[in-house]
Predict the 3D structure of the following.
Amino acid sequence: MKEIEVSSAQTDYSVVVGADLLRRLPELAAERGINAAAAVVSNSTVGPLYGRSLAERLALAPPLELPDGERFKQWNQVERVCSWLLDHGVHRGATVVGVGGGVLTDMVGFAAAVYLRGISWIALPTTLLAMVDASVGGKTGVNLPQGKNLLGCFWPPLLVVADVATLVTLPPRELRAGMAEVVKSAWIGDRGMLALLDRELTDYQCLPIERWQELVVGCVKVKAEVVSEDEREAGRRQALNLGHTLGHAFEAATEYQRLLHGEAVSWGLLGEAVIATSRGLLSGDNLHRLRTAIEYLRPLPRVDDITADVVLEHIAHDKKRDDLGIAWALPSDDGVALGSRVSADEVREALAEIAKLGPAMAERPAMR
Ligand SMILES: NC(=O)c1ccc[n+]([C@@H]2O[C@H](COP(=O)([O-])OP(=O)(O)OC[C@H]3O[C@@H](n4cnc5c(N)ncnc54)[C@H](O)[C@@H]3O)[C@@H](O)[C@H]2O)c1
Ligand SMILES: [Zn+2]
């Protein structure tokens, strides 16, 4: 088991990473002086797998199980969680536990933030993406019909417990999508991890549990270091947008139906690497290295039918834009180049380049 500290304006907290930690939650919380949990919230998929047994272990009523899916990441579910907490007599000093992927932990964190003007919560992420990304950094929230995560706030949990043993039941496509964020984190902040990826990417689907622990710890360290320095995304936190400016545009252009978030990030990393190479930020060797890492995350749904105009239109509406447009985070030889202003022509060229990869990326990789 490994523990990583995250600093935040509201509260410092630990991310504990290891195998078979869910059953140890009561002692992990008690050791850190955290109040016993009062309620567990999960969803219809993760509840039967992990949420119910956890609630039993905590001697609590069965968990509230929300419907599963990004389309349910809405204010009405937050309201439902709050009413349920009220009905179960959860008071201000109590702690609510969210068990599930990023959709669930974002919603439970948001409910904890607004319920009785804010109560404590514990995040138990059960997807790779939620372990390495969503549960670290304190962002919580839900979607609006106009766009993703438009309603939310910073409300860090008191504790994050990433039990890598839960990855065993995660569908392979979700695991691959989460690996895109692992590649991103490795590129941003841990070249040692990249070396590990170079060795392991071929058969990451059957990685031993200790390797998962190593990868999750590596990524959490990168994110923890970045958000501890810049919680509100004034500077350094922008590095975490690597692959995301194009990635978000691909997701939006396909109406969030075709691509999982991590798959869109894979395409985003490929496209942004092309832009970075033509700007001289990324060497040919490093372009190849990043591409090779993404190739192991195949099959990826294709994006070559999306026109450059549509992608540019979505970039123009990116919520991270400022008066000058978007400050891109581009991959560079030593990590990330922040604040780059990218022209429409550069985007067009990058899309033309990655369109050539479409058929090959739709195939499963051959194992080495
Ligand atoms: N707060 C942040 O900083 C932050 C960062 C990145 C992403 N996010 C958010 O995270 C969300 C995406 O999260 P996600 O990729 O975890 O998707 P998700 O929460 O939809 O989970 C993916 C699927 O896997 C299922 N699942 C979860 N754990 C499982 C397990 N162990 N075994 C079997 N099935 C399991 C889920 O029920 C779901 O069907 C998005 O809404 C995104 O906005 C937030
Ligand atoms: Zn992401």
The first strand starts at residue 2 and ends at 6.
